[in-house]
Amino acid sequence: DCVSDAKSAIRWVRENASELGIDSNRIAAGGGSAGGQLAAACATLPKFDDENENKLISSKPNALVLFNPALVLSPIDSGEKKWNEKLAGLEKRLGTEPVNMSPYHNIVAKLPPTIIFHGTDDEGVPFMSVELFTKRMHEFDNTCTLVAYQGEGHGFFNYGKKSNTVFVDTVHKMDEFLVSLGYLKA
Questions:
Q1: pLDDT per residue as tens digits for the range 9-60
Q2: Of 101, 142, 167, 181, which sees the most CB atoms within 10 A?
């Protein structure tokens, strides 16, 4: 339901772009942790669109800005044993086989340009998972930039932490990314 709702939100924004005063071909989706997973899911997962919506209007964002995103939701050969064991128990929580909800497992060519901000000491979403995602994106010739924050844990980017220095840094780098795509003026 969460993925369906996220896809519906992007479809609604695209459908109402002229009324909102935005370019329907420059919609960036983003979020932190599970929110990052939902944004990436809209770009990668072929399923979970609302059956009652017009599928001629794309639910895929044009760019992704992800903060500590959960991108690998099903075990992988190159994953750590402890992490793969944790992932193996997700089916009940997800309501489907985890591979169906895993952006990593659904990467194809021509996905939106992506930037990922991730702490190297994230215990909730291992840094290795975003490294693997980035590598796989590149294998399909997709643009994906991983910005590592040494020693930082989950949610390091949130406003109000460390005098907002990391928050400001991530916002600045996000702005540069969107400027590079032509979505914002410098």
A1: 999 999 999 999 999 999 999 999 999 999 999 999 999 999 999 999 999 9
A2: 101
Cα–Cα dist 40/60, whole Å? 9
DSSP string, the chain: -HHHHHHHHHHHHHHTHHHHTS-TT--EEEEETHHHHHHHHHHH-SS---TTS-TTS----SEEEEES-----S--TTS-HHHHHHHHT-HHHHTS-HHHH-TGGG--SSPPPEEEEEETT-SSS-HHHHHHHHHHHHHTT--EEEEEETT--TTTTSTTSGGGHHHHHHHHHHHHHHHHTTSS--
**Gap between the Cα atoms of 183 and 123, Å rounded:** 33
